[in-house]
Amino acid sequence: MGMLMRRRQLLCALSAGCALGLLPGPGRTQALPAVPRRRVIIDNDFSGDPDGLFQLAHHLASPATEVSLIIGSHIHVGDFLDRSSTQAENAVRAVREMMGHMRLPRQPEVLAGRNAAPRPDAAPEATPAVRRILAEAMRDDTDLPLFYVAGAGLTEIAEALRLEPRIARRLTLVWIGGAEYAALNPSLPPRTDPEYNATIDLAATRTVFNESAVEIWQVPRDAYRTMLISFAELDAGLEQAGALGRYLRAQLRRAVEATGTRGETYILGDSPLVTLTSLQSYFEPDASSSRYLIRPTPQIDERAGYAAVAGTRPMRVYTSIDTRLTFADMFAKFRLVSAP
Asked: Which domains does the chain have, with CATH numbers?
């Protein structure tokens, strides 16, 4: 069945009428054929830092990934980018608004996660988002590997893993979060402050690392902070991206004005989620231009730090991300999929 599905996908890609997510507009040419090679569930705080909206638009514009589900998640209570008590619902609203500025063959299902982290001692709850994660992970009608890509906290995937531990063997978690590993980058000035995403729901982070069997590809703080792009480059790239570019610029302006600071650069720290899934190499699929090490999965302590434990499952820790590939591909695809 898997070979038949792939053959149909290839025939579709080579036919003139196949919609692959990159829909050519007037005066545009179709990109070279591509077919889905993996599925992704996207979980991010789309009402907070707008880097998640850039990542989502880029994923939606990438035909090598089939976006199965989008989850709008919460951030810290009272965060200055969204002080409301409806952060997850606001995230869903932002996703739908942004997709309205894109030319897509289909719009994936969008669900709100929890609006705040549950109590650390609370029993897991089968919320609509969690039920949908479980259903996607347990599918047996596709052989496309499933990646759960998360750019904020881990509330929903932790709940799903607690309710049905078997899904740990059926997906890979790609996570933007966690502090630096001093031994991997000893030239960095030492930091003792907990990393933001790890503490959005620390109990969930500890569940995923300490109690589950899921394979983790981690992009820690020192790696995601290298996704630095200048406002001049952003302006030039988004200027050519029609309605989508105007929307993303407005969201970026909102965040910059909320900080009250001024500078020339911004960190699009969630973009590695696209690099490591959609932009894997052609013949031997892997994120071959980004660097990682294989390490035993550490335990997460009560301060969101790491404790080495012998005999734990292996995980990837990314030490560098191919920024050239990521940003060049992002702007090229934004021009292809934007509404006028």
From this structure: 35-337 (3.90.245.10)
| Phi/psi-derived region of residue 124, left when phi > 0, alpha when psi is between -120 and 50, beta in every other case | beta
| C-beta separation of 175 from 157 below 8 A | no
Q: What are 158-172's pLDDT values in tens digits?
A: 999 999 999 999 999
Q: What is the pLDDT of residues 38-74, one digit of tens each?
A: 999 999 999 999 999 999 999 999 999 999 999 999 9
Q: What is the Cα–Cα distance from 138 to 140, expressed in whole angstroms? A: 6
For the chain, first and last CA: distance in Å? 40
Find, among 73, 96, 81, the residue nearest to 49 by Cα.
81
Task: Specify the DSSP class assigned to residue 50.
Answer: T
Q: 231 burial class (0-12, 13-18, 19+ CB within 10 angstroms)?
A: middle
How far apart CA 42 and CA 157 sit, in angstroms, is 11
Radius of gyration of the chain (CA): 19
Q: Are 265 and 252 in contact (CB under 8 A)?
A: no
Q: Which residue has the tokens 């030319």?
A: 103
25 Cβ contact partners less than 8 Å away, ≥ 6 residues apart: 103, 336, 340
Residue appearing with tokens 């030039």: 236
236 C-beta neighbours (distance < 10 Å), count: 11
* Cα–Cα dist 45/298, whole Å: 25
Look at the chain and count its residues: 340
